[in-house]
Amino acid sequence: MPFNALLILCFMLLLGAAPGRAVAEDSLMIESRHAPGLQVGQPEYALGRLESGFDQARSDDRGWQPLQVPNLLRQPAGAWLRFPVHNLQANASSWYLLLKWPVLDRVTLRVYYPRQDRWGEPMVAGDTLAVSQRPVVDHNLVFPLNLQPGEQAVVYLQLEASELMVLPLELVDETSFIEGKVLDTALFSLFFGGMIVIVLYNLSLLIFTRDLSYLLYVLYLLSAMFYVGTMSGFGQLVLWPGAPPFSARFYTLSATLCFLTPLLFVVRFLQVRQYGGWVWHITWVLGCYWITVLLAVLLIPEHAHWLFMEYVALPYCLISLAVTLTLWARGNVSARLFSIAWITLLGFTVIHLLALWGYMLLNRLTLHGQLVGMFIEFVLLSMALAERINLERNQRIAAQQLALETSRSLADEREQHLQAKQQALLIQQRANEELDARSGAHQGARGSPSRSRAGECRAAQTELHRSVDAPRQSPPVRSATRRRGPSRTPQRHAVDRPAGRHRSLQASQRQLRPSVRRRVPAPGRGGTPAALPASR
After folding, report:
1. Residue 143's domain is classified under what CATH number?
2. Full DSSP string of 379-401
C-alpha cells in the first residue's frame, strides 16, 4: 500500500512536470508584467572569468548562452548575466530589478548605455555585505534602473555564490515594488507569528511533560524558522543586518538542520527503532549522512559541496514519506497525521523545486508556496502531538480502571473467603453445641449422683483454695504463740486441718473419676454420640 501510493505520487509529478518545462522554455526568465512601458529582452549567461571586469565581459566573446532555467546550480567560479531593456514611454521612468534569492554572496550590477557608450555606477548587494551597503534596503536584492524616454540599455550582473545560484528575476515599477514589499512583509509576518505561537505552545508542553519528543520538535520548528528567515532575506534584514563572517553559510546550515532535526523527531516520536528492518536501517543511514553534512558545513564549509546535498534533498523527502506510510500501515496511530503533514510539505516543496528547475513558472506562489506547506505541516504535527497526549491519557485511565477492577475482584474474593470461613466456624460451633447438648442429655439420663459428686468436688476444691490462701493473708501465728507461751497442739491442729481436708478431697476425687468416666459417652463418627454400653 505505501509503495503503490509513492509510485502513483511520483508518476503524477512526472506527468505534471513535462508540460511545465515547455511553458517555461517558451517564456522569458524575467517577470516584467508589473513594469509597463519597459521592454525586456532574452537574458544570457556566461560562466567564470569574473576577474576580467565589465569592459572585457562586454567586448569579449565569452560564449553567451540563453538562460532557459532560472538555476545555474553551483558555480564556484561565478557567472555573468546580461539582458537588454528598452524604455517605450515618452518620459523618464524608474524601475526596480528584484533578485528574489537573497542568499547569493555578492551581486554587482552595472548598466551599459550603447548610445552614449558609457557605464552606469556599480551597485553591489549580497548576504556577505551589510544591509546598509545595499542600493535599496529590502529583504530581496533590489537594484534601481533609470532610463530616459526611448532609451536602450544592457544590464550586466556579476554573480558570486557558494551555494546554488538561483536567479528568480522580476522587473517592477515603483508602485508594484511597494505593494509587493507590503505583501511579502504581511505573508512572512503571519508565518513567523504562527510559528512563534506553535513554539511557545510546545515549549510549555515540554516543561510540563519532560518528553524528549517536544524538545526535538521545538528544534525542528526553530530550524525551519532559521531556514525561512535566511532564504527570504528577512533574517539578515532584521536579525543580522551587519552580515557576520559566517552568514554566507547560513543557507546551507539552515537547510541541513531542516533535514536533520525532523529525522531525529521522527525516530523519537514514531519509535522507528522498535520496528527494525529496512525502515530503521535506512533512517539510520540518512541520519548519519545529514550529521556528516552538518559537521562538514561547520568545520570545512569549502568542501561541503562534495556531499551533493542538493541532489539528496528530493530522494530524502520521498524516502521519509515511504517510511511514515509504512509505519502507518503497520498500525502506528501517530504516523497517520505525520504522513498527511509530510505529504502536504512534500507537495509544496516539489512545486518549489520544479519552479526552480524550470518545469513550472517561477512566481510568488511557486517561490514562497513552501511556507504554506510548512505551516500546514507544523499545525498537523502539533495535532499529532496533542493526539499522542490524549492517547497516553486514555491508556493511563484504562490502566487505572483495570487496576481498580483487579483490586475490587481481589476484595470480593477475600470477602467470599472470609464468609466461607465464618460459615464453617458457625457450622462447627453448632456441631459443638449439639454435641455438648447430647452429652449433657446422656449424663442426665444416667442420674444426678455424678453431677452432685462433681459439684461437691468443685466446691471442695474451691474451699481448699480458700483455706490454703487464708494463712498467707493472716499474721504469723508461730511468732505470736512463742511470745504468749501456750502449748503447740492448737497450732499444729490449725495447720494440719487444711491438709487433712485436702487428703480427704483427693480420695473422694479418685473415687469419683472412674464412675464419671464410665458414664460419659465418647463421640462417634459424624459428630454423634457413640453407642451406650450394653449395661445400659
Report:
1. 2.60.40.2380
2. HHHHHHHHHHHHHHHHHHHHHHH
Residue 382 C-beta-side C-alpha neighbours within 13 Å = 20
Q: What is the pLDDT of residue 458?
A: 54
Same domain, 289 and 248: yes
Neighbours of 59 (CB within 10 A): 9
Q: How many CB atoms sit inside 10 A of residue 171's CB?
A: 22
User: What range does the domain containing 84 cover?
Assistant: 27-172
* Residues 189, 148 share a domain: no
- The β-bridge relationship of strands 118-119 and 106-113 is antiparallel
Separation between Cα atoms, residue 143 and residue 302, nearest integer Å: 29
Whether 75 shows a pLDDT value over 90: the answer reads: no
> Is residue 273 pLDDT above 50, yes or no?
yes
One-character DSSP codes across 142-160: EEEEEE-TT-EEEEEEEEE
Residue corresponding to grid cell 556577505 = 128
Q: What kind and span of H or E run contains 329?
A: helix 309-329
- Among 11-25, 213-227, 507-521, which stretch is predicted with the lowest mean pLDDT? 11-25
Examine the domain organization and report whether 241 and 129 are in the same domain. Answer: no
What is the Cα 434 distance to its own chain's centre? 73
Q: Is the pLDDT of residue 504 over 60?
A: no
Whether residues 155 and 202 share a domain: the answer is no
Q: Which of 403, 425, 446 is the last residue of a domain?
A: 403
Reduced to 3 states, what is the DSSP secondary structure of residue 44? Answer: strand
For residues 291 and 280, what is the distance between their CA atoms, to the nearest angstrom? 16
Q: Are 161 and 185 found together in one domain? A: no
Number of neighbours of residue 492 by Cβ within 10 angstroms:
10
Tens digit of each residue's pLDDT (9 = 90 or more) over 27-49: 457 887 777 888 899 999 998 88
CA torsion sign for 29, 35, 36, 37 is negative
pLDDT at 523: 46
- Domain C-terminal end among 172, 192, 207: 172
More confident residue, 66 or 209: 66
Nearest to 74 by CA among 140, 156, 166: 166
Same domain? For 208 and 160 the reply is no
Q: What is the pLDDT of residue 514?
A: 47
Q: Which of 384-388, 390-394, 418-422, 509-513 has the lowest mean pLDDT?
A: 509-513
pLDDT of residue 491: 44
Sign for the CA dihedral angle at 375, 380, 386, 388 comes to: negative
Q: What is the pTM for the complete model shown?
A: 0.68
DSSP for residue 529: B
Q: Is residue 497 part of a domain?
A: no
Of the two residues 382 and 458, the one the predictor is more confident about is 382
